[in-house]
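Kindly inspect the following:
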Amino acid sequence: MKPISFTEETLSQPRNIEITAKSHVTIECSLIGYPHPDIVWLKVIRFEIFNQLKMEFNFLKILKDGLQYNGTADQQDQDDRMVSRHPLRFDRITSADGGQYTCLARHMKKQLNITFSITVLRMLICF
């Protein structure tokens, strides 16, 4: 058994991502450790009720066209460590896809998470 940790590839990504609508974006969530952790991607939802009560929920993002969450085959890195890759991909991102996404990893009694914020910019149409 080896403790889990995020790879440098995951930690070195920008946490705040600005991207133009209809573009492609991939957020990498890769971990080192064995046995392999359970991974889920969560999206933070915020809303107001009667302009007063603010609530925040985490839920597992339901996959839809253009959004893919795929755990890939485990690989060994240059230091012979087992790496689990769990990218979150948007093929044609929309404004509804903007928000905060958290990669949550559970391994034995340990839990790690890393959060990314995506801002989707409108496409400029020039005449």
User: Anything to note?
Assistant: The helical segments are 8-11.
